[in-house]
Amino acid sequence: MDTFLKVIKKRGHSISFENCTSYIVIQNEKFDFYLREKLKRVPRISNSSWQEYDYLPTIKLSFNVKIRWQIAEWKDGSLPLEKQLAEIIAKLEI
Question: Where in the chain are the domains?
């Protein structure tokens, strides 16, 4: 995240925070973004009529950006998030 924020600032864009939300500002357009850990949902055995779940950590990160009405997501996989920074920034600038 540190590298991402530094690259955004070097490219002439800015970061702002409002109402507990982080925004990337590119040419006066705001994109809210967040970084989170992906979770694995496992059904829990219970006597309830509703299905209950446990959420387990996966040690995989997900970077999400809201672009207009859609959410673009990049996640750790065969290629770690650190190697996807150029693709993320290109998508935001386009």
Answer: 2-43+53-93
